[in-house]
Design a protein that fits this description.
By secondary structure, this protein is α/β, with parallel strands linked by helices. It contains 24 helices and 23 strands.
């Protein structure tokens, strides 16, 4: 143990942040707001909060450190608790959606930006915190952008009391961001630079444009694998779960063929919708003489140090949500990263030793990338975050102090959606209705929250909680490429002619009946980890329902009641079959198709609702359910005009 502690201390003292700790403490002591820019690997995320705590700048209150992603919040908290020689959840803890590992004695609290925003609903002044550190600010998630305005307002109100014991310090940290914009937004606050990344990184660009970046990534991985020492890990950046799992399988298959010619491989997928326990496997050690390969989305871009990673393979692509307020369509599309994102990805290779980054695009293409990531608040549906803002008492949304304002059209569109859901009323000012206040209690998309509230009156709350929980985690089923036909055949017994929501419910019911039996899961191609995660989410949602005094009723398998409830939240996501056999969304007349993974693929029901639209080769509806057109009209007569 002493040896491990000695090793941790040595690592801490070698970080660039350690050399600047006295200056950091002195600056933060006299400043109310500061920006800290430090290259990837400088130690800002793990060390700066500890320096402020050790110097007693926290005044016995809590230091909040926000992260855009749950996997980063959890893994960093684990690392810092090791460095502080305490159990996780004591001095150092974390709080992410559906997982709170803190206690009354927690002083260093790592959390997702969304969780701090939810806390601000109950406490707009954030009174339990003396310092709020907004880390990875360059990511510009929708929650981070709103948090900027919320903590700025909280600081102004608390500091106006002129009492030292209630003042609030704000620290914004990043490796790359538009410093002038941030500094001017926070009253021309000073910028502190942490000089020096730990280790240099060699950059290699593709000599020509790559039309198939996932194939290029595969080729690059095995070029490295044949040449590099087996203890040097590889991190590959791709865009989404299906692409990642297909690539992981290809790497496994090729490595088996190379047995005896190259070292063995351990391959790990990493993406946001995995259960936390699965995500954290990427940090586990691999056998000596075995190469670790991680294939990840942009969740691995920031604040993660995965031991042994020496090579980064960057596809230059990312899956981003893009919302068009004029059409009302929320699409998932694969787009180019920004230059700032590319720099972050490169930095993953230089955390412990000199590394290399292979960029699967030309230098000319890199020069044409956007300088910074387009803020999520300017490209996403705002209904969820506006619901939270209204719950905090922020009614003048248009004049809220955003660092980069969303368009007025986006705000109007989101308020219209909340109005149709019955969450807001427009009098002399916009405010939440009684229904809206209940919806805001759920850490869910407003549509899903509304479905739960409708279920209370339709006597099927138990079934709806299961469906909502399933939609809050990743897929319950998996389709191994080599056994696709077997998987499809096994799924037939769960499939419902009424659509995917009912199919998912059948799967979760059967999973519970089997008590999560591993053999049953393998035979039925059910992802037991995601199914268990859905049950955990369900348990927590049930607790929120209990707090709201809801009665837990069951429909006794009346699927009409269940589907009517779903219409209550998803009526804006409805489509009808036209005379040519194509689907058109009712609200915008957008041409779309049922996704091949749906239980309704190759079926042609007249009217459906869907969970989301995904744009690939064409526009697909995912998670589809058959509905009666009369249900749509009955749910919201003001939204539909009967034909």
């Amino acid at each position: 143990m002493n040896e491990k502690l000695h090793s941790l201390k040595k690592e801490q003292q070698e970080l660039p942040a350690y050399r600047a700790r006295k200056q950091i403490i002195q600056h933060i002591q006299r400043l109310r707001t500061a920006i800290i820019i430090g290259e990837t690997g400088s130690g800002k995320t793990t060390q700066v909060p500890q320096y402020l705590y050790d110097a007693r700048l926290h005044q016995n209150a809590v230091i909040a450190i926000t992260q855009p992603r749950r996997v980063a919040a959890i893994s960093i908290a684990q690392r810092v608790s090791e460095e502080k020689q305490c159990n996780l959840g004591e001095l150092v803890g974390y709080n992410v959606r559906f997982d709170n590992m803190t206690s009354a004695c927690t002083k260093l609290k790592y959390m997702t930006d969304g969780m701090l925003l939810r806390e601000a609903i109950l406490d707009p002044l954030l009174k339990k915190y003396s310092i709020v550190i907004l880390d990875e600010a360059h990511e510009r998630t929708i929650h981070t952008d709103v948090l900027f305005g919320v903590v700025k307002a909280a600081q102004k109100k608390r500091n106006s009391l002129n009492r030292k014991d209630v003042s609030l310090k704000i620290i914004i940290m990043s490796a790359t961001m538009d410093v002038d914009n941030f500094s001017s937004y926070f009253g021309s606050c000073p910028v502190l630079y942490l000089e020096g990344r730990q280790f240099p990184i060699k950059l290699y660009y593709s000599p020509e444009h790559q039309s198939d970046y996932s194939f290029a990534a595969l080729v690059t991985v095995f070029q490295i694998h044949r040449q590099a020492s087996p203890d040097e890990g590889i991190l590959v950046f791709l865009t989404g779960q299906e692409e990642i799992e297909a690539t992981v399988k290809q790497i496994w298959d090729i490595s088996k063929e190379l047995a005896g010619e190259a070292p063995p491989l351990c391959v790990f997928p990493l993406y946001a919708s995995q259960p936390p326990i699965v995500q954290l496997r990427v940090f586990s050690p691999v056998p000596k003489g075995t190469r670790k390969v991680i294939v990840a989305t942009n969740v691995a871009e920031t604040s993660l140090t995965i031991k042994g990673i020496k090579y980064v393979v960057d596809s230059g692509m990312v899956k981003a949500k893009l919302f068009n307020p004029s059409s009302g369509l929320d699409l998932l599309k694969v787009v180019r990263t920004s230059r700032a994102q590319a720099v972050q990805r490169t930095g993953r290779a230089g955390r412990e030793s000199p590394g290399s980054c292979y960029r699967l695009y030309t230098e000319q293409e890199f020069d044409q990338f956007r300088p910074n990531t387009l803020p999520e608040i300017q490209r996403c549906n705002l209904s969820g975050v506006l619901l939270q803002m209204l719950a905090m008492g922020i009614s003048d949304i248009v004049n809220f102090d955003f660092i980069d304002k969303p368009t007025t059209q986006s705000i109007i569109n989101a308020l219209d959606q909340l109005n149709f859901l019955g969450a807001v009323e427009k009098t002399d000012k916009i405010q939440l209705t009684a229904v809206g206040k209940k919806m805001a209690a759920f850490p869910l998309d407003p549509r899903l929250a509304k479905v739960i509230l409708v279920a209370k009156d339709m006597n099927c709350l138990e079934e709806i909680l299961s469906i909502v929980s399933i939609l809050s985690v990743d897929s319950l089923v998996y389709n191994p490429q080599t056994r696709r036909e077997e998987a499809v055949a096994a799924r037939k017994k769960f499939e419902s002619a009424e659509g995917d929501f009912m199919t998912y419910l059948n799967i979760l019911r059967s999973f519970k009946a089997s008590a999560g039996n591993k053999k049953w899961c393998r035979e039925n191609f059910v992802n037991s980890k995601n199914a268990n995660m859905a049950l955990e989410v369900r348990r927590q949602l049930r607790g929120i329902c209990q707090n709201q005094g809801m009665q837990f009723t069951s429909s006794a398998r009346d699927s009409n009641a269940i589907r009517k409830c779903l219409v209550g939240g998803f009526f804006m996501n409805a489509a009808e079959l036209d005379k040519d056999g194509n689907y058109l969304t009712l609200s915008t007349r957008k041409l779309c198709s049922i996704h091949p993974s749906s239980s309704l693929f190759n079926c042609k029901p007249a009217y459906v609702i869907y969970n989301e639209l995904v744009q690939t080769t064409k526009c697909y509806m995912r998670d589809v359910c058959v509905v009666d057109p009369d249900w749509l009209y009955d749910a919201v007569p003001t939204y539909f005009k009967k034909k």
